[in-house]
Amino acid sequence: MTAIDRQSGALRPDLEFIDPQARRQYLDGKVAAIVAHAFEHAPAFARRMADAGLTPADIGGVDDLARLPLLRKSDLVELQKKAPPFGGLSHLTTAGLRRVYVSPGPIYEPAENSLADDRWAQAFYAAGFRPGDLCQVSFNFNLAPFAFWLDESLRQLGCACLPAGVGNGEIQVRAMKDLGVTGYLGTPSFLATLADKAEEMGLDPRRDLSLAVGFVAAEMLPESLRQSLEERFGMIVRQSYGTADVGCLSYECRHLGGMHLAQGCLTQIVDPDTGLPLGPGQPGEVVATVFNPAYPLIRFATGDLSFIDETPCPCGRTSAKLGRIMGRVDQMTKVKGMFVHPGGVRQVVDKFPQVAAYQLVVERQGHNDVLTLVCEVEDDSGGHDELKARMAAAMKDILRLSGEVRLQKRGGLAPGCKVIDDRRKWD
Fold first, then answer.
1. What is the mean pLDDT of residues 294-323?
2. N or C: where does the chain have the smaller number of CB atoms within 10 Å of the terminal CB?
3. For the chain, give me the number of helices (H) and strands (E)?
4. How many CB atoms are closer than 10 A to CB 114?
5. Euclidean distance between CA atoms 46 and 55, whole angstroms
6. What's the CATH code, domain 333-422?
7. What is the mean pLDDT of residues 260-284?
8. Is residue 396 left, alpha or beta, with left meaning phi > 0 and alpha meaning psi from -120 to 50?
């Protein structure tokens, strides 16, 4: 059998290897075009421009975007309340859509009839996925767009998808073995769980399974975990960065050292207070402009902190790289691929008037995130099993994450303490 080259080349060499000056001209043209389109077809964007005293003639390229205020996730929630279903940011009706996704908020996101965006496919190719791979997607095919994006992007690349979803470890391992699955897409912690499950079943993950490449996302990937996974399976493990709102923004190549900016969108680092772009190496907020005429999110602030690294990469890609995610602009925390924010925690606790004070603690046990909702009540002497069960169910319903509930007497939590206490440490 001929060995597959999983190291060289790129999906879009016309953009990934392009001269930086030519890329800037390309981006200037795309920015001007999407602004003109959104101004004509998205009433909420036209109002945003008018409020800033701007017309499309004022936005001729990338530099001019700084004149436009940032768009935040909270803005999407308010816009959709005022103008359902899509907040005046899409001209399409449901008759012209392939799907409608739902993100916490709730926020409703339209998906055009065919996926033209190939940014996730760029990430897959850089990770080593190749046409003919059978790829097991272990993300949740439920409401949110991510797993569906991956499925369609694999098709763009010429790969087949096994839509496994979350959980069912033994079934997933059996499918990997029986079908000769070569690619994995999911969280790194679940891939580690599958290695453990395979060994419980008497299998050697490296010898008895066929995994060659892994694309992991939605969680932090410590280098110790990456090395463990690559050794246990004998595979390549790479990651990317993006959000459910704007899709893939950056991805790793074989040389690591940061994530190349995905081509087909504009990713910038800005000062969270002023919105002005920052230079290479300066930490700031990740802001994206996507060139999607069906749902043009322009100057969308992700809330994540990072920086741009312009060090040339040996792989030949000429785009800058996004540095590691350094945290959140506000108190929001990403846990198991889901953003948890203080308002969501408050929604949980508001259902239980017995609670006088509370804090959500996020910790790391092994390679897994663990949530504990610490609640102070007047009486913690016992008999609260039913209350804790109901609170845990409310967490799962509202935050879409499972966690433990710990009750304690009043006075243990400091007055004015953070609603979310993220105690995770990454090596």
1. 94
2. N
3. 12, 21
4. 7
5. 8
6. 3.30.300.30
7. 93
8. alpha
**Structural contact between residues 238 and 128, judged by C-beta atoms closer than 8 angstroms:** yes
Which tokens belong to 276? 């002005």
Residue 224 tokens, joined: 């110790």
Long-range contacts of 102-108 (CB under 8 A, 24+ apart): 102/143, 102/144, 103/143, 103/144, 103/244, 103/245, 104/338, 104/339, 104/344, 104/399, 104/400, 105/73, 105/76, 105/77, 105/80, 106/77, 107/73, 107/76, 107/77, 107/80, 107/245, 108/80, 108/84
Coil, strand or helix at 381 = coil
Higher-pLDDT residue of 124, 114: 124
CA triple 69-267-104, angle to 5 deg: 70
Return the exposure string of 42-69: e unless at least 16 CB atoms fall within 10 Å of the residue's CB, then b: bbbbbebbeeeebebeebeebebbbebe
223-233 and 188-200 helices, crossing angle to 10°: 40
| 3-class secondary-structure state, position 369 | strand
Flag whether pLDDT at 1 surpasses 60.
no
